[in-house]
Amino acid sequence: SPSPRPSILHLSGRAIRYLSKRRQERVGLIGDALRRDCFDLALLQEVWSEQDYSDLKVKLGGCYPFSHYFHSGVIGSGLCIFSRFPILDTLLYQYSLNGYPYMLQHGDWFCGKSVGLIVMKISGIVFNVYVTHLHAEYCRDKDVYLPHRLVQAWELAQFIRHTSQAADVVLLGGDLNMHPEDVGIRLLRGWTGLRDAFAEATRFEGCEDGCTLIPNNRFTVKTELLPFPLGIRIDYILYKAISGVTVKCEELKTTTGTAPGMDMPFSDHEAVMATLHIQRQGQAVGDTLGTAEPTLVDVVTEARTEVVVGLRAAQQQRYSMGRMAVLALLLLLLQAAAALGALAGLAAGQPFPKLSFSLLAFLAIGVLLLATSLHLFHTMEVKMLQGTEEQMRMALRALQERP
């Protein structure tokens, strides 16, 4: 049968946030680039505006007759896929943990971070194509979101393993917000057997070391990249063959700055473009783990340790919020008792300070509602972290018991 050579574009970043600078102009540039190169697949993240997706869909209809937008969260997952081939099926999985709703300056919680899946067939070969965007890091020295991102990486790996059994080829593109050596990437690749297109590519062209977040991009936060003068690589195209086919990355490219003929880049992230050679073989390859099991044991152990650290922090937050709620409730009860006493003293001509009591009561009720809500949130966080820790513990036991 013919050997399909899908060319895949993965584009990520803040190019299409609602409040991004020159957003509509940049969305138009992205659409022009996709239409000009006409990739077989285009995987986009952070398309928060569904109107932007609709505009892209109209503009790209001639080259990409098939597309899908994944709905999730308050403002949307931002994930969408454009394809030259029919989309046979779709599925969305929303990660159980995704930051904190009170961290408004970051906003990840409101996105409903997820992984989207489409199933397609090219020349008789079944493809499972995944697109995702994991929680951002923000501060590498004190990464309070590391446990959540590890839970997301684990759930992503589990989702891929449990949904790809009927596929011949697995493709994953996304902003994983992790460096190549981070434990989350090692966990994802080790548990799924996915291969890194950058490491496997026969030819590479683009930013040094394949970096996708570089200091000379005008939309990046320069202070975050001070420890990394060349930039960082946090956007990936990963792949593997499951049965009866071989996959080889012939070429990988990244954009290297401004859009052609313009004074600005498409996004604060550089686009990643891969050309894959896929050929059917007579013998099934099978689904295997990507690293030696002793190494994988160490990776899962390291990830589990970080999850346990996050679990203890969540338990402490739950306790603090619970204690605050109890104190607010006691304050309300004391106010009620004082109010009854004051009302009883009205007969003796004692004035009742209504304004002071009302302000204090509103304050106590506000603290009670906020603390109770956060206590419930952190209770759910504890349960999700406990569930992931138990899954990792069982996975470790299974790995260690294998002959």
TrEMBL record:
GO BP terms, alphabetized: sphingolipid metabolic process
Subcellular location: Membrane
Pathway involvement of the protein, from the record: Sphingolipid metabolism; Lipid metabolism; sphingolipid metabolism
Transmembrane domains' residue ranges: 325-349, 355-377
Membrane topology field: Multi-pass membrane protein
Record InterPro entries: Endo/exonu/phosph_ase_sf, Endo/exonuclease/phosphatase, Sph/SMPD2-like
Lineage top rank: taxon: Eukaryota
Entry protein name: sphingomyelin phosphodiesterase
Organism: Columbina picui
